[in-house]
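Practice problem 4.
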């Protein structure tokens, strides 16, 4: 069976500051018709900074849609034409003040493919140097330095509610275990 869906017509479109939204009428593989709501997002980069002592730098940030403070790895939206690794480095510097000597791509993930085009690139940052943070206007963060092994245990128990952060922690495991084994 061909699983492709055919766009019949665009019904509505909203252009926002960060995302655009459209609603399309589509023909499904069985010939019936339905509607699809799609959020167009430019993509993002997430970076888990882990220092030479094995501590990860994470942040607490209030997230309005959930109405709660989440524990997260630094992340942000990719600007038009921006290299994702440079976006990750920029967000790391803006939110934590840290500068990474090494940036490792851990993977690329669709955040919610049922309705969003967002592709998130996740990085591990190592060989960290301290600098001065400069969060974006309206961005309020509280940094915390937590042992990576503690975060890993939290992620494995399902205690990290932010998906990008949980994925970053779990994907970083082979790189951080290899480093610990070499010491």
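Answer key:
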């Amino acid at each position: 069976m061909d699983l492709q869906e055919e766009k019949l017509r665009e019904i509505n479109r909203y252009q926002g500051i960060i995302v655009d939204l459209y609603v399309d009428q589509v023909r499904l593989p069985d010939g019936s018709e339905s509607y699809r709501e799609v959020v167009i997002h430019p993509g993002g980069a997430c970076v888990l900074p882990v220092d030479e002592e094995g501590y990860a730098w994470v942040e607490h940030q209030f997230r309005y849609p959930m109405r709660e403070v989440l524990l997260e790895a630094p992340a942000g939206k990719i600007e038009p034409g921006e290299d994702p690794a440079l976006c990750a480095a920029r967000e790391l510097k803006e939110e934590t003040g840290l500068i990474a000597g090494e940036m490792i791509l851990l993977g690329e993930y669709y955040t919610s493919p049922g309705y969003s085009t967002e592709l998130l690139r996740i990085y591990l940052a190592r060989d960290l140097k301290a600098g001065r943070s400069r969060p974006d206007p309206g961005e309020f963060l509280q940094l915390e330095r937590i042992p990576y092994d503690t975060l890993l245990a939290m992620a494995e128990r399902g205690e990290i509610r932010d998906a990008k952060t949980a994925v970053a922690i779990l994907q970083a495991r082979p790189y951080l275990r290899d480093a610990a084994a070499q010491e």
